[in-house]
Amino acid sequence: xxxxxxxxxxxxxxxxxxxxxxxxxxxxxxxxxxxxxxxxxxxxxxxxxxxxxxxxxxxxxxxxxxxxxxxxxxxxxxxxxxxxxxxxxxxxxxxxx
Length: 97
What we know:
Helix content: over 70%
Strand content: under 5%
Number of strands: 0
């Protein structure tokens, strides 16, 4: 029982980190899109590219499955929803055990 709870806590922590990275990626993308921050800002561009490289392996399979929606990318939203569903299922398994 304790091992399942520890596993749940680890997965929950990783989920929270991924959600934060997705939100940071979204905010920086908006700042670039609306020219609040210039894309010639080397630090912010390097940070944004690093986040993209971290998230791309996770988001690419979702993008391949989803239909093309033009400029809007719903794959981060789908990832967040799927991760929350996994946490709910794991929590119910732990409680029932």
